[in-house]
Amino acid sequence: MLRRKCKAAVMAQCRHCWRLYQATPSHMQTRQFKVAVIGAAGGIGQPLALLLMTNKLVTELAVHDIEPTTGFRKDLSHMDTGCQVKAYFGSDQMKTAIKGADIVMITAGMPRKPGQTRDFLFDTNAPIVAKAAALVSEHSSHALVGIITNPVNAVVAVAAEAMKKCGRYDPRRLFGVTTLDVVRAEKFIGDHMEINPRKVRIPVIGGHAGTTIVPIFSQCQPPFEGDKECIESIVKRIQTGGDEVVKAKAFKGSATLSMAYAAARFTNALMRGLKGEPGPPECAYVESDATDSPFLSTPLTFGPKGIAKNHGLPELDEREKQQLKVAVDALKKSVSKGVKYME
Ligand SMILES: NC(=O)c1ccc[n+]([C@@H]2O[C@H](COP(=O)([O-])OP(=O)(O)OC[C@H]3O[C@@H](n4cnc5c(N)ncnc54)[C@H](O)[C@@H]3O)[C@@H](O)[C@H]2O)c1
Ligand SMILES: O=C(O)C[C@H](O)C(=O)O
């Protein structure tokens, strides 16, 4: 049947002044996105869900946790943002939450306590990530997957192996979320230079733990103002930002609100890519051939299939080259640990 172009004008009422205005009929609106948050009832999951509810690109939000999510969903469902929220809980419902999702953000798993390293969480969190990754492969293989769960450096490799086992691994679609390192770098540099942190752009490459976090001050925009000692002290603060929060929260978890903010920024960048309207490059931990480490965070431009362009290593000064070398040695071990776990 030949389809005629619909010229119908739909009148809608402005919620502020009550005047009628011409609106786009719903069948002509551009398709927007279903995002699933796994581990949604947790410290990061709840504020992330809240931020995603307010993003106009998200039309369906699926919240899943092993803990009940019904009350949390009811709460979100009263928001007049135009995003429909659906709740799922228990291991059996994870697949339904994931089904048809354009983006799956995985934040399920244990956070660390003072004195623990992120690596300490591996045994608990690796099976959770492996299961979620396998379900994405089986039920929504086109989805872009952001892994927030620690230790990111190792569990992203776990997810990749789980997807390979299902025969559905696409390296353009799997990301370890390292945006919090970028957010911290921009904030600490902005404060130091007494400028708005939102005006700062700096690539933070490597991984997401201690010395694997490599902020590239030589490429900071606007150019960084400060001496070598000053750079060293801010680098150290970015690398230990997570420890700073873990210590301050004193056995009540790790970064949740700043992480939710960072994850919402990252999810928004992925959605802009899916729409074919990418913003500036964002760093994330992805399969990479830029160094000897099979995974590395570098600046990426997103597109309809995930990574449209991996910009690879930025230009590095001598100090940054040394830092990257240390990072790559550690990352190779973390990735091997993840791969071995899935053998
Ligand atoms: N990538 C980063 O920059 C970054 C930053 C902060 C925290 N993290 C990590 O994110 C993870 C979550 O942190 P949090 O503070 O939200 O922890 P949390 O304990 O508050 O929340 C985790 C949630 O995951 C749920 N969960 C556990 N197993 C699950 C499963 N099998 N299926 C579904 N849900 C499950 C729990 O019920 C809980 O609600 C931790 O591993 C933490 O280390 C990463
Ligand atoms: O430090 C942690 O354990 C959480 C997270 O990785 C962070 O950087 O804040």
TrEMBL record:
Any Pfam family matching the protein: Ldh_1_N
Signal sequence bounds: none
Sequence ranges assigned to domain Lactate/malate dehydrogenase N-terminal in this UniProt record: 34-176
Cellular component per GO, a single term: mitochondrion
Entry's EC annotation: 1.1.1.37
Residues given in the record as NAD(+) binding sites: G39, A40, A41, G42, G43, I44, G45, D65, N125, I148, T149, N150, M259
Active site per database record: H208
Keywords tagged on the record: NAD, Oxidoreductase, Tricarboxylic acid cycle
GO BP annotations, alphabetical order: malate metabolic process; tricarboxylic acid cycle
Name of protein: Malate dehydrogenase
